[in-house]
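Whiteboard transcription, Tuesday session. T.W. wrote the structure tokens on the left side:
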């Protein structure tokens, strides 16, 4: 079976060399709006704000520390080599965004809306996507060990060469989701939601265990 790869729209932003430097105040306030610029080699530290808007912004080598940005709106945004660990992006609205070579351990996207989002070579262990509305998303060459995608609505998602060991997908409808390229020794799903999920032959052992089946490898 040929693997179907979801085509996503890339951020609509000019080449990096043409993007001006974006100057931010020391404190981010709720409802702030930042547009068309690049933020480089800096730390966003201990910020708490709601419904901040970033439009056509590139973050490069930026570290977010103890930061809460609930309800954030990201449109045509690129994160390159950023540390977003444990950032609270719950209830975010994200459209045409790329996360490349980012550290996202424990990042929280609970109840977020994600459209045309790419995670490429990211470390997103323990990231949370609970109750998230996902459409047109591609995750490739990334770590999502113990990530939580439970009770989410997923439509058009490609998972390519990711580590999903012990990921949580309980309560999430998996029809059409292709896990065959990913690796895991254990994964949490609801049996009732497995119909239509695409797996590799060697992954069948994991799902057999979920069903309480015993696989006999011996040959007479």
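and on the right, the sequence the group agreed on:
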């Amino acid at each position: 079976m040929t693997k179907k790869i979801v085509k996503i729209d890339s951020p609509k932003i000019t080449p990096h060399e043409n993007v001006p430097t974006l100057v931010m105040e020391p404190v981010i306030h709720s409802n702030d709006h930042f547009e068309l610029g690049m933020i480089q080699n800096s730390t966003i530290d201990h910020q708490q704000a709601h419904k901040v808007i970033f439009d056509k912004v590139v973050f490069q080598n930026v570290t977010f520390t103890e930061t809460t940005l609930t309800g954030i709106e990201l449109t045509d945004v690129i994160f390159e080599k950023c540390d977003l660990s444990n950032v609270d992006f719950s209830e975010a609205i994200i459209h045409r965004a790329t996360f490349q070579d980012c550290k996202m351990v424990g990042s929280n996207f609970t109840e977020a809306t994600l459209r045309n989002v790419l995670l490429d070579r990211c470390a997103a262990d323990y990231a949370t996507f609970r109750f998230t509305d996902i459409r047109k998303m591609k995750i490739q060459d990334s770590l999502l060990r113990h990530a939580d995608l439970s009770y989410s609505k997923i439509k058009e998602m490609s998972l390519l060469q990711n580590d999903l060991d012990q990921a949580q997908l309980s309560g999430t409808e998996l029809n059409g989701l292709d896990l065959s390229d990913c690796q895991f020794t254990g994964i949490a799903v609801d049996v009732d939601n497995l119909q239509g999920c695409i797996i590799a032959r060697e992954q069948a052992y994991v799902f057999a265990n979920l069903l309480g089946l015993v696989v006999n490898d011996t040959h007479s």
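Someone added at the bottom: The first strand starts at residue 33 and ends at 45.
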